[in-house]
Amino acid sequence: MTSALLRTRLVTLAQTILRRALPVVSAAIPARRQVVVSGYPETEGNASEVMRALLRSYDGQVVWLREPSGPRLALPDHPRLVTVDKASVAGLWAYLRAEAVFFTHGLYGSPRPTRRKPLVNLWHGDGPKATRPGNGAGSLIPSTWLVAGTRLFGELKAAAFELSPDQLLVTGNPRTDQLWRPARPDALGSLGIEADFVLWMPTFRATRQESGLRAWSEGELGAGVQEVTPLLAALRERGMQLVVKPHPLDAEDRRAAGVVAVSDADLARAGVPLYALLGASSGLVTDYSSVWVDYLLLDRPIAFLVPDRQVYGRALVPADVLDWLPGELVGDDRPFARFVADLDAGGTRDAEVRRAVTERVGLHQSSRCADDLLEALAAAGVLRARSGSACQAQTEPGPDPRESQDGERQRAR
């Protein structure tokens, strides 16, 4: 037996033990005034924005679980914020003493929630990739509440997680709050971004182990740099850049001449949250990723590069989603022409298309989704907010971050 296989089996055994034991132990240990928040990777925006919102409106202790590896989130200096390692006795003890738990990918073997310890599944986006019980998600990650950014994808997700409709909270993905705090020009410059830019965010098709062998696949490697060559040329003519942010699990980094590639580690070093990078972009190129759903909030041009649509290994829901995307589905005939025309028009060309999709999916339109979530939980009796800390719900997005971004760039010049 190889060391990697042995390690995998030991981890599986530990998760099984935790999954069975933690609900029993949790029921016997009184909760204290504290919550636990866990995100993967540690810089994942849904978790980090909920942590910040809790520090604003919750008067108990907030325990942030540190990931054992990967980029570290720069944490605020706050007297009620405590950090512990996720893979530690202190982390388990914090979980057992918490009155509520927030996570993005499951936690400690994904035990069943108890009446005294609600589990809030922040997940990591709403998108067309099917979530199925039995494939590492769904029924294997139980929760009391499931957070979604849209009614359509949220209901599909809740069904996959075997939750009732009243356990679904369509309060928006908390990470989208970062869209309204776009990255500053100096921070962008440290990443090699020195002009207006389009962000390319492909979802992963395959992961690789440290040995270089493919570990998990949802299809072939998908679009490479050669497929964006026409876009690169068009952007160059307009003095713009193409920035690629691969998925953290992606087997390809898509680094190439003329393309600025940034990783989670690069963003962490520059102090730029991923959605703050999105907020500074002029347009988005993606595929089956959930990012386009969040990007609808900005009402900016979107293109969909899906050369493997016939062979992609994961089901899409709804099945006809590629027929009503809010932007150009890039093909062989004049690729990216419609997307570039929308860029030239400042996003007005396809604005009606995006608006129709926004209504179709039931997008929660807010610039304060993390606060919206905590207010919904407080209304459900899950968390008690400090007196006077709750804000009035804001149903329309805040000011367009492009306006402040343009001003910052002018001052930088």
TrEMBL record:
Residues 388-413 are annotated as: Disordered. Its main location: membrane. Gene3D superfamilies: 3.40.50.11820, 3.40.50.12580. Coiled coil: none annotated. It is a peripheral membrane protein. Residues 399-413 have a biased composition (Basic and acidic residues). Belongs to the CDP-glycerol glycerophosphotransferase family. Keywords: Cell membrane, Membrane, Teichoic acid biosynthesis, Transferase. InterPro entries: Glycerophosphate_synth (IPR007554), TagF_C (IPR043148), TagF_N (IPR043149), Teichoic_Acid_Biosynth (IPR051612). It is found in: Cell membrane. This is Uncharacterized protein.
